[in-house]
Specification:
138 residues; mainly beta; Immunoglobulin-like; 5-stranded antiparallel β-sheet; 4-stranded antiparallel β-sheet; 9 strands
Length: 138
């Protein structure tokens, strides 16, 4: 039996800030018979710019394969507002439950520099796929 392929890594760069996301379906936490499908996602934020940035806000758009949309706005990520100097990196993990066997997520992080300049960095749109999806969206 072949092992599972490694999860895809999605990447986007805005103004020197690179955001990488690696989603993973959580079999143990999902309950397909009850309409509960759960993913984790690891995020890596790398500051390749010359500025120091503080992540102040997050904006997520989550759409499941049934067309249901959730918007999630809030301060920082995982209870933190990390500051990244030039060349620094911040990593965290979080999760997303859906009532459908697949979906997509994407959004943006708002960063503020030490001089008050704002940067809206794009979070790459990534797929939330499970082995329970019988038809893929076209």
């Amino acid at each position: 039996m072949a092992g599972r392929p490694p999860p895809l890594v999605y990447e986007a760069e805005t103004g020197g800030v690179t955001i990488r996301v690696q989603p993973r379906f959580l079999h143990d936490e999902s309950r397909p018979a009850s309409g509960r499908y759960v993913w984790s996602y690891a995020v890596e934020i790398e500051n390749g710019s010359e500025r120091t940035w503080t992540l102040t806000l997050r904006h997520w758009e989550i759409v499941d394969s049934q067309g249901r949309r959730q918007i999630v706005d809030g301060e920082g990520v995982v209870g933190q507002t990390p500051t990244l100097g030039p060349g620094e990196m911040f990593k965290y993990s979080s999760g997303a439950p859906l009532a459908a066997p697949s979906g997509m997520m994407g959004g943006s992080y708002t960063f503020v520099s030490e001089t008050g300049e704002e940067l809206a960095a794009r979070i790459p749109t990534f797929s939330l796929d499970s082995p329970y999806e019988r038809s893929k969206p076209s």
